[in-house]
Amino acid sequence: MYNDEENLYHYSYRSGSERPQDHYIPVNTDPVQPQPEKPKKKGFFKRRGTKIAALALCCALLGGAAGAGVMALSGGSGSTSLNVSDRKTTAVSVKKVDGKTEMTMAEVYAATVNSVVSINTSSTGTNVFGQSVETASAGSGFIITTDGYIVTNYHVISGASAVKVTLYSGDTYDAAVVGGDEDYDIAVLKINASDLPAVTLGDSGSVNVGDSVAAIGNPLGELTFSMSQGIVSSNNRAINVDGTPFNMIQVDASINPGNSGGPLMNSYGEVVGIVSAKYSSYANTSVEGLGFAIPINDVSAMIKDIMENGQVTTKPYLGITAGTMTSQMASQYKIDITQGVFVYSVESGAAGDKAGLKLGDVITKVNDTDITSMEDLTAAKKNFSAGDTVTLTVYRDGSYTTMELTFGVAPATTETDSNSGNSGNSGNSGNSDNSYNDFYNYFFGQGNGGSSN
Fold first, then answer.
1. What total of structural domains would you count in the chain?
2. Catalytic residue among 260, 426, 435, 451
3. What is the pLDDT of residues 392-441, one digit of tens each?
4. Residue 229: which CATH number?
5. Catalytic residue list contains 399
6. Which one of the listed residues 183, 185, 298, 305 is annotated catalytic?
């Protein structure tokens, strides 16, 4: 606090219970009588002999106290004695995954960790100075056959020039990329090995909200073969990952970079999902406990297809160039509706051409499913395979019409248009005449918002 005396400020240091002391001396007007100075006595600790005695006494007291403490901790009776459990621990038994035996999470880990792998990739590119540089990344995967086929996410190995796989035993192998599909974010690798411990695939359709699940993988690419436990938070959760829609299993188990591609296990040790994504922030807000896995039922047939053919041969294909319909586009092309998928062009001889689709059509339904955007159409396609027939509802020349369309087979090689951007950004179409070239160059089978379709 501050004290004021004749406009001068002085610091007063005190505790809360002490009263402030004056910082000035009152003037005494009485004459001062000189007093003879009395000799000062030496203080207690200024006497040399007393100093030595006090030091010896302190050392003796401290030594005795320390000795007493050691005796108490080493078994003497007193409040400082420690209680030590005499419980006998037993090692976790390794059970076989048979689909019938429910296990503790420790038993799930022991039964399946040998089927999990660490994946490290490297790729070569150029920096802003045109110099060649090599980058590295890491992910997870799991062994699906005893002869060395491994499943992971497509984004784990995308663009990689070299892929290495490390088993739980520490053995490392060079891996070949058999194939993958970006839309479904799955890829298959192959290593030259035999008699490997393969996982058992479960039924993701039987997963219930509240079921216990475990994710095993390599968070941060360094904390290898870590397991995190949680529950199923939601089934068939529709999320959008970089413009591609997915129906995911939502979990609250801890998932971090490096976990991608690893297995999501149920309490029976079966793989019910492929760990794929997490939200760490949303609308500038940090979030926790939002992890997602691809349901294994949705991709198991595709995984087998990739193993046998190097690609998903049953992937449905329309053969059109299309984009999300917006109010700006409706004004530009003088169309009376503002939602749906606008057809820019139709590939000759492809499924869309055979069905009768034309430039300027707006797709509004696939069977009974409403289509308001490219994401909706891409998601609807995932429910079908090549050769399936659907009914399209199309807005054309001021009225609605329906047509039968039989999906074709997606081409073996696809390209991704670098200008397509995120199909979810429907507001980008406002750049008048260049809206197609700049924002809506989405080719079914050759790219959709940055991903092949």
1. 2
2. 260
3. 999 999 999 999 999 999 887 543 332 333 333 333 333 333 333 333 33
4. 2.40.10.120
5. no
6. 185
